[in-house]
Amino acid sequence: MIRSLGIDHALVCVNDIVAVRDSYLRLGFLSRGFSQHPWGTSTTVLIFRDQLFEIVGIGDPALLDGHEAGGFRFGRHVEAHLAQREGVCLTALNSADAAADAEALGRRGVTVTGTIDFGRAVTRSDGTPDRTRTQLKILANDRHPRLSLFACQQFRRDLIEYPEWMDHPNGVTGIAGLTVVADPEDTAAVVDWFERIHAAKAERLDPRTLRIATARGGWTVTDRAGFIARHGTIPNMLADATLPSVAAIDLMTARPADVAEKAAAAGLEAHWIDDALVLPQADRLGGVVLRFGRFGT
Protein backbone atom coordinates (compact mmCIF):
# COMPACT_ATOMS: atom_id res chain seq x y z
CA MET A 1 0.00 0.00 0.00
CA ILE A 2 1.30 3.45 -0.98
CA ARG A 3 1.91 5.81 1.93
CA SER A 4 2.16 9.34 0.61
CA LEU A 5 5.48 11.15 0.26
CA GLY A 6 7.76 8.24 1.00
CA ILE A 7 10.74 7.82 -1.31
CA ASP A 8 9.52 6.40 -4.63
CA HIS A 9 12.62 6.77 -6.76
CA ALA A 10 15.63 8.92 -7.49
CA LEU A 11 16.35 9.90 -11.08
CA VAL A 12 19.98 9.02 -11.77
CA CYS A 13 20.92 11.15 -14.79
CA VAL A 14 23.62 9.74 -17.07
CA ASN A 15 25.37 10.40 -20.38
CA ASP A 16 25.53 6.77 -21.53
CA ILE A 17 22.35 5.06 -20.39
CA VAL A 18 23.28 1.78 -22.09
CA ALA A 19 26.63 1.48 -20.32
CA VAL A 20 25.26 2.43 -16.90
CA ARG A 21 22.34 0.02 -17.24
CA ASP A 22 24.85 -2.70 -18.10
CA SER A 23 26.71 -2.02 -14.82
CA TYR A 24 23.48 -2.56 -12.88
CA LEU A 25 22.61 -5.71 -14.81
CA ARG A 26 26.03 -7.11 -13.96
CA LEU A 27 25.33 -6.36 -10.29
CA GLY A 28 22.34 -8.70 -10.44
CA PHE A 29 19.44 -6.36 -11.22
CA LEU A 30 16.72 -7.05 -13.77
CA SER A 31 15.50 -4.41 -16.22
CA ARG A 32 12.91 -4.63 -18.98
CA GLY A 33 14.74 -2.28 -21.33
CA PHE A 34 14.39 1.33 -22.48
CA SER A 35 11.54 3.75 -23.05
CA GLN A 36 11.12 7.50 -23.41
CA HIS A 37 9.27 10.22 -21.51
CA PRO A 38 7.12 12.61 -23.56
CA TRP A 39 9.55 15.42 -22.63
CA GLY A 40 12.44 13.73 -24.41
CA THR A 41 14.38 11.91 -21.70
CA SER A 42 15.17 8.24 -22.19
CA THR A 43 14.62 5.95 -19.21
CA THR A 44 15.25 2.49 -17.88
CA VAL A 45 14.06 1.27 -14.48
CA LEU A 46 14.78 -1.34 -11.85
CA ILE A 47 11.42 -2.29 -10.33
CA PHE A 48 10.62 -2.90 -6.66
CA ARG A 49 7.37 -3.04 -4.71
CA ASP A 50 6.08 0.58 -4.57
CA GLN A 51 9.49 1.89 -5.61
CA LEU A 52 11.75 2.19 -8.64
CA PHE A 53 15.40 2.92 -9.39
CA GLU A 54 15.34 5.07 -12.52
CA ILE A 55 18.26 5.80 -14.84
CA VAL A 56 17.63 8.62 -17.32
CA GLY A 57 19.46 10.22 -20.22
CA ILE A 58 18.69 12.52 -23.12
CA GLY A 59 16.66 10.68 -25.73
CA ASP A 60 15.14 13.24 -28.11
CA PRO A 61 16.50 16.80 -27.64
CA ALA A 62 13.67 18.19 -29.79
CA LEU A 63 11.16 17.31 -27.04
CA LEU A 64 12.99 18.77 -24.03
CA ASP A 65 10.77 21.88 -23.82
CA GLY A 66 7.60 19.81 -23.62
CA HIS A 67 5.23 19.52 -20.65
CA GLU A 68 6.15 22.84 -19.03
CA ALA A 69 4.73 23.23 -15.52
CA GLY A 70 4.92 26.61 -13.79
CA GLY A 71 8.13 27.42 -15.62
CA PHE A 72 9.63 24.02 -14.84
CA ARG A 73 10.65 21.91 -17.83
CA PHE A 74 11.48 18.37 -16.80
CA GLY A 75 13.65 17.62 -19.83
CA ARG A 76 15.60 20.88 -19.58
CA HIS A 77 16.15 20.28 -15.85
CA VAL A 78 17.76 16.92 -16.61
CA GLU A 79 19.80 18.43 -19.45
CA ALA A 80 21.09 21.31 -17.31
CA HIS A 81 22.26 19.09 -14.47
CA LEU A 82 23.72 16.50 -16.81
CA ALA A 83 25.80 19.29 -18.37
CA GLN A 84 27.40 19.74 -14.93
CA ARG A 85 27.86 16.06 -14.05
CA GLU A 86 26.05 12.76 -13.78
CA GLY A 87 24.05 11.92 -10.65
CA VAL A 88 20.67 12.43 -9.04
CA CYS A 89 18.95 15.58 -10.32
CA LEU A 90 15.40 14.89 -9.08
CA THR A 91 13.71 12.57 -6.61
CA ALA A 92 10.17 11.22 -6.81
CA LEU A 93 7.96 10.75 -3.75
CA ASN A 94 5.10 8.24 -3.55
CA SER A 95 1.62 9.67 -3.76
CA ALA A 96 -1.74 7.95 -3.46
CA ASP A 97 -3.52 11.29 -4.02
CA ALA A 98 -1.33 13.97 -5.59
CA ALA A 99 -3.94 16.73 -5.25
CA ALA A 100 -4.43 16.06 -1.53
CA ASP A 101 -0.68 15.88 -0.98
CA ALA A 102 -0.26 19.22 -2.76
CA GLU A 103 -2.80 20.80 -0.41
CA ALA A 104 -1.04 19.34 2.64
CA LEU A 105 2.32 20.58 1.40
CA GLY A 106 0.88 24.06 0.93
CA ARG A 107 -0.21 24.11 4.56
CA ARG A 108 3.41 23.34 5.50
CA GLY A 109 4.73 26.22 3.42
CA VAL A 110 5.86 24.18 0.41
CA THR A 111 4.86 25.65 -2.94
CA VAL A 112 3.86 23.32 -5.75
CA THR A 113 5.55 24.64 -8.88
CA GLY A 114 3.17 23.00 -11.31
CA THR A 115 1.41 19.82 -12.41
CA ILE A 116 2.29 17.39 -15.19
CA ASP A 117 -0.21 14.79 -16.41
CA PHE A 118 1.03 12.21 -18.88
CA GLY A 119 0.78 8.63 -20.00
CA ARG A 120 2.74 6.20 -22.16
CA ALA A 121 1.66 3.38 -24.41
CA VAL A 122 2.88 0.05 -23.04
CA THR A 123 2.60 -3.59 -23.99
CA ARG A 124 1.67 -6.12 -21.34
CA SER A 125 3.60 -9.37 -20.95
CA ASP A 126 0.89 -11.16 -22.94
CA GLY A 127 1.21 -8.70 -25.83
CA THR A 128 -1.91 -6.68 -24.98
CA PRO A 129 -1.54 -2.91 -25.56
CA ASP A 130 -2.36 -0.59 -22.65
CA ARG A 131 -1.52 2.88 -21.37
CA THR A 132 -0.07 4.24 -18.14
CA ARG A 133 -1.48 7.31 -16.41
CA THR A 134 0.62 9.47 -14.10
CA GLN A 135 0.31 12.82 -12.35
CA LEU A 136 3.31 14.73 -11.02
CA LYS A 137 3.26 17.65 -8.59
CA ILE A 138 6.58 19.43 -9.13
CA LEU A 139 8.35 20.72 -6.02
CA ALA A 140 11.22 22.74 -7.47
CA ASN A 141 13.93 23.84 -5.05
CA ASP A 142 15.33 27.02 -6.60
CA ARG A 143 18.06 27.41 -3.98
CA HIS A 144 19.26 23.80 -4.24
CA PRO A 145 18.02 22.54 -7.63
CA ARG A 146 19.43 19.00 -7.29
CA LEU A 147 17.16 18.55 -4.27
CA SER A 148 14.05 19.30 -6.32
CA LEU A 149 11.30 16.71 -5.86
CA PHE A 150 7.97 15.67 -7.29
CA ALA A 151 5.00 13.85 -5.81
CA CYS A 152 4.24 11.00 -8.21
CA GLN A 153 0.80 9.39 -8.41
CA GLN A 154 0.73 6.29 -10.58
CA PHE A 155 -2.87 5.49 -11.47
CA ARG A 156 -1.85 2.26 -13.21
CA ARG A 157 0.90 0.82 -11.04
CA ASP A 158 -0.08 -2.60 -12.39
CA LEU A 159 1.49 -1.51 -15.69
CA ILE A 160 4.79 -0.76 -13.94
CA GLU A 161 5.23 -3.46 -11.31
CA TYR A 162 5.71 -6.63 -13.31
CA PRO A 163 6.41 -9.43 -10.79
CA GLU A 164 8.77 -11.24 -13.15
CA TRP A 165 11.02 -8.15 -13.22
CA MET A 166 11.01 -7.59 -9.43
CA ASP A 167 12.72 -10.79 -8.29
CA HIS A 168 16.28 -9.49 -8.63
CA PRO A 169 19.02 -12.15 -8.45
CA ASN A 170 20.97 -9.99 -5.99
CA GLY A 171 18.06 -10.00 -3.53
CA VAL A 172 17.54 -6.21 -3.55
CA THR A 173 13.98 -5.34 -2.55
CA GLY A 174 13.98 -1.54 -2.50
CA ILE A 175 15.53 1.77 -1.51
CA ALA A 176 16.20 2.32 2.18
CA GLY A 177 17.38 5.89 1.88
CA LEU A 178 19.29 8.62 0.10
CA THR A 179 22.36 10.43 1.45
CA VAL A 180 22.77 14.14 0.72
CA VAL A 181 26.17 15.80 1.04
CA ALA A 182 25.89 19.48 2.00
CA ASP A 183 28.35 22.14 3.01
CA PRO A 184 27.86 23.14 6.68
CA GLU A 185 26.44 26.54 5.73
CA ASP A 186 23.69 24.83 3.70
CA THR A 187 22.74 22.10 6.16
CA ALA A 188 20.03 24.03 8.03
CA ALA A 189 18.22 24.96 4.81
CA VAL A 190 18.45 21.40 3.46
CA VAL A 191 17.10 19.89 6.67
CA ASP A 192 14.29 22.47 6.82
CA TRP A 193 13.29 21.56 3.22
CA PHE A 194 12.95 17.88 4.04
CA GLU A 195 11.27 18.51 7.42
CA ARG A 196 8.55 20.60 5.74
CA ILE A 197 8.09 18.12 2.91
CA HIS A 198 7.69 15.14 5.24
CA ALA A 199 6.23 16.81 8.36
CA ALA A 200 9.00 15.18 10.38
CA LYS A 201 11.77 16.43 12.65
CA ALA A 202 15.36 15.50 11.94
CA GLU A 203 17.15 13.06 14.22
CA ARG A 204 20.82 13.72 14.89
CA LEU A 205 22.92 10.59 14.29
CA ASP A 206 26.28 12.17 15.07
CA PRO A 207 27.78 15.69 15.15
CA ARG A 208 27.94 15.80 11.33
CA THR A 209 24.89 13.81 10.34
CA LEU A 210 21.10 14.12 10.56
CA ARG A 211 18.31 11.85 9.32
CA ILE A 212 14.78 12.73 8.29
CA ALA A 213 12.35 9.80 8.13
CA THR A 214 9.73 9.57 5.39
CA ALA A 215 6.75 7.29 4.92
CA ARG A 216 9.20 4.95 3.18
CA GLY A 217 12.94 5.24 3.65
CA GLY A 218 14.75 8.32 4.81
CA TRP A 219 17.09 11.17 3.97
CA THR A 220 20.54 11.36 5.55
CA VAL A 221 22.21 14.78 5.45
CA THR A 222 25.93 15.05 6.16
CA ASP A 223 29.08 16.89 5.09
CA ARG A 224 32.03 15.51 3.13
CA ALA A 225 33.82 14.22 6.24
CA GLY A 226 30.62 12.59 7.48
CA PHE A 227 30.13 10.95 4.10
CA ILE A 228 33.65 9.51 4.19
CA ALA A 229 33.04 8.15 7.69
CA ARG A 230 29.90 6.32 6.51
CA HIS A 231 31.14 5.21 3.07
CA GLY A 232 34.90 4.95 3.44
CA THR A 233 35.63 7.43 0.64
CA ILE A 234 34.08 10.11 -1.53
CA PRO A 235 34.70 9.97 -5.30
CA ASN A 236 36.38 12.99 -6.86
CA MET A 237 33.34 13.68 -9.04
CA LEU A 238 31.28 14.11 -5.85
CA ALA A 239 33.93 15.69 -3.64
CA ASP A 240 34.38 18.52 -6.14
CA ALA A 241 30.71 18.82 -7.02
CA THR A 242 28.41 21.73 -6.47
CA LEU A 243 26.51 20.93 -3.29
CA PRO A 244 24.13 19.99 -1.82
CA SER A 245 23.17 16.89 -3.79
CA VAL A 246 22.33 13.21 -3.38
CA ALA A 247 25.64 11.35 -3.31
CA ALA A 248 24.64 7.82 -2.25
CA ILE A 249 21.70 5.43 -2.38
CA ASP A 250 21.09 2.71 0.23
CA LEU A 251 19.60 -0.48 -1.22
CA MET A 252 17.97 -3.20 0.88
CA THR A 253 19.08 -6.79 0.50
CA ALA A 254 19.42 -9.71 2.89
CA ARG A 255 22.33 -10.95 0.75
CA PRO A 256 24.93 -8.19 0.38
CA ALA A 257 27.66 -10.83 0.03
CA ASP A 258 25.99 -11.92 -3.23
CA VAL A 259 26.30 -8.35 -4.50
CA ALA A 260 29.97 -8.35 -3.49
CA GLU A 261 30.57 -11.43 -5.66
CA LYS A 262 28.81 -9.87 -8.64
CA ALA A 263 30.70 -6.59 -8.18
CA ALA A 264 34.01 -8.47 -8.23
CA ALA A 265 33.01 -10.29 -11.41
CA ALA A 266 32.06 -6.96 -12.99
CA GLY A 267 35.36 -5.37 -12.01
CA LEU A 268 33.67 -2.90 -9.66
CA GLU A 269 35.49 -1.82 -6.52
CA ALA A 270 33.70 -2.74 -3.27
CA HIS A 271 34.46 -2.61 0.43
CA TRP A 272 32.65 -3.23 3.70
CA ILE A 273 31.77 -0.62 6.32
CA ASP A 274 30.34 -2.47 9.31
CA ASP A 275 27.74 -4.82 7.79
CA ALA A 276 27.10 -2.74 4.64
CA LEU A 277 28.73 -3.23 1.26
CA VAL A 278 29.83 0.03 -0.40
CA LEU A 279 30.40 0.42 -4.14
CA PRO A 280 32.23 3.75 -4.58
CA GLN A 281 32.87 3.90 -8.35
CA ALA A 282 30.36 6.62 -9.09
CA ASP A 283 31.76 7.06 -12.61
CA ARG A 284 30.38 3.60 -13.53
CA LEU A 285 27.16 3.80 -11.49
CA GLY A 286 25.66 7.02 -12.81
CA GLY A 287 27.28 9.52 -10.47
CA VAL A 288 26.25 7.90 -7.19
CA VAL A 289 27.79 5.65 -4.55
CA LEU A 290 25.77 2.55 -3.69
CA ARG A 291 25.47 0.95 -0.27
CA PHE A 292 23.89 -2.51 0.13
CA GLY A 293 22.71 -3.96 3.44
CA ARG A 294 19.85 -5.40 5.44
CA PHE A 295 18.57 -1.95 6.45
CA GLY A 296 15.40 -3.33 8.04
CA THR A 297 14.89 -6.30 5.68
TrEMBL record:
Residue ranges of every copy of the Glyoxalase-like domain listed in the record: 7-189
InterPro entries referenced in this protein's UniProt entry, alphabetically: Glyas_Bleomycin-R_OHBP_Dase (IPR029068), Glyoxalase-like_dom (IPR025870)
Pfam families associated with the record: Glyoxalase_3 (PF13468)
Gene3D superfamilies on file: 2,3-Dihydroxybiphenyl 1,2-Dioxygenase, domain 1
The protein, known as: Glyoxalase-like protein
